[in-house]
Amino acid sequence: MSTPTTGRLRVDGATLHYEVRGEGPPLLLIPGGTGGAASFDGVADMLAAEYTVASYDPRGLSRSPLDDPQAQQRVARHADDAFRLLDLLSPDAPARVVGCSSGAIVALHMLTERPERLERVVAHEPPVVEVLPDAAEHRAMLARVQETFHRDGLLPAAAEFAAALRRPGDPAPAPVELPPQARARAERTMADMPYFLGSIVPSFMAYAPDLDRLEALKHRLVLAAGADSHGELPYRPAACLAERFGTGLVHFPGGHTGLTTHPAEFGDMLRKVLAA
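Structure tokens predicted for Alpha/beta hydrolase:
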């Protein structure tokens, strides 16, 4: 694995840690969950053979501290951070953007806000539950998770949230043997879970994308989901939007976390989708 060039970017209310690899057209990778830039370590080198690959720790996570740790988080502010990074690294050329999970929500907002800056967007399982016909049920679930978080703490709330993401009736998954790098990363990012569950999840999963705007830009949008996550909650919005827009849903190896569990196959699929 190559060593990326790293930098710090001052934005409104935070300082972002970012990493850059390779040469070629600009490609911005937006992580989901608490993974940060390191979540793309398994695919970044492969993509850097063809692109200038940039990723970063979103504000409040890992190496991107907030000025005010209690500040409310909004999708639009996170999208502005991503644009500021693009403007720094690629002020002229339109970029390709890949977002996973909560990062995919940011990518969708970017496309609706400044489409002239984006050549193509790959959104892998954005949990925009407001597009679903049963959105009210998921709003109630998110409220229950927050109640549990504030009453009982992180672990009970995280367990309740994870159960809500699974297919109805599915048991909790057995532990998965992760690659060594992924295991070390999982241990490091547990420290960010209170911030993610308490600040990112309720705000991001309440986000309602501009569907008319997205449909008008669907030729630049690739909606993607895990081959193994059919029927799980994060899968459903991508499938719903693909059906609404008539674009088809691109299946990637693995499930919602296929980037971590199947990095080589996930990266190969990304190369194909980005080049199409």
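The longest helix spans residues 135-152.
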